[in-house]
Protein 1
Amino acid sequence: MSGDHSVPTRWAARIVCPGRHTGLPRTGRKPGGEMAAVHVKLRNSRTERPWIAGFLCALLLPALGAWPAHAQGGTSAVCSLRIPANLTPGFSRTSSTGTYGTGGETGTITCSGTVDGHRVTGPGSFGFKGTYTGECFGNVGSGTYFFTVPTDVGQMHFTGTYTETRIGLTGPVEASQPGARFSGPLVVAPTKGDCVTAPVTEVLINIAGTFSS
């Protein structure tokens, strides 16, 4: 083919670069993750061209070193959350602004998938704190959340921010943390107060959604 610059089949090629940790699978590594130092040559029957190998090493090593870190750090998990929360002053028939939260990681989060590149191996704990504006029939809120889950490398802790909008007993939640976003619906059930004889000051929040990179 015209313009074909492929290496002739009679050339022997070994392109292995010395002394560089790439994060690639362990095949070809020394203990500790360092690549074995190998003299690199491209040759035919007449000419040795080690400078070609050096050029290819310089070109490929940055890409080889960066690729695994990106590929291994992804988040993809389907999660359900069950969160008891307290509200001050609480939802009533009159709109107000107040605070709400869990007072720690008192809720539960159960996920199937990976977070930050690691497989979740069991249920974890979840909490949040924030502010809301609204009343019994709807509200908007925002704040921070935090949770801890067991993974194949041990316990991992995450924090992020969220926004939520409720109409009636349900509404969407959007959240984000470094490297991942969450989206899903929430359902709120009053557990203290009824909005008739007393404001709602305690609720149970159920959320189902997905974390993704």
Note: The radius of gyration is 28 Å.
Protein 2
Amino acid sequence: MKVFPQSRLPISPAARLRGLAIATLCVVAATCRAGALGTGPLLFVVPAAPDSLADSAPVGSTAPRVDTIRIMNLGDGLLRWAAQVKHASMWLTLQPDTGTVGGAPLQVSADPTGLALGVYRDTVIVAAASGSSVLEVPVVFRIHQ
């Protein structure tokens, strides 16, 4: 079997920094029918915007701060994702925690209820449902006077 190099796919440097690429290799056996030959690799990227979240609330407040992470698919096809809070901080919740690109955006809620003055940190992990691509979005939540 011969392996032929494929052309480079145009992915911007910013997209490469924000996400991980998943390449699917198409193996094609030689046939007499040209129409039976497949195409080159398909590329899926799971970037998010923004690439970090920062918010604050006054000490004693109880109203959650809600931010949105928009998950994009820079490739073809349906991309399913799942999200979780890396260190399971009780002040940080996600809604929904699973979805598909083009569906509901990922809502990140930081709840200041009961938090003392200080800076709280955790990370939202967004992964392709296949588990082969992971993106981490740092979250900083500051409780002030």
Note: Residues 47-144 form a domain with the Immunoglobulin-like fold (CATH 2.60.40.10).
Protein 3
Amino acid sequence: MSWRDCVEHNNKPTRLGYVRVVIGGRKKYVHRIAWESVHGPVPTGFELDHLCRNRACMNVEHLEVVTHEENCKRNIRAISSKLFCVRGHYRTSATFVPLANGRGYCLECKRWFGRKYYAEDNPKKSPL
């Protein structure tokens, strides 16, 4: 799933990133309107999850009906993947170097790999 496939409404998103429109004097979320126009109403006790993690997206292929608990679990995973590198180091502007292609690398991991390779090349001088 790519953010390039997202379909966004031209209204300004709320501070939480969702887009709403007024229909019949009531504010409604555009992703919910799109879902209901294709699949019918969302069952009671369930909510829509943006699989693309883009709250402004109203592409029904990027939406899935889930429980609130599942939606929260997915959001925690998405947030933690942005807060920590794959090896668990905390990501800050001082420890993470972004690259032009949208990826980046963790300086802590780079240092660790550097020490590891130094140790393999110089076993007697190794700090590890």
Note: The chain has three helices and six strands.
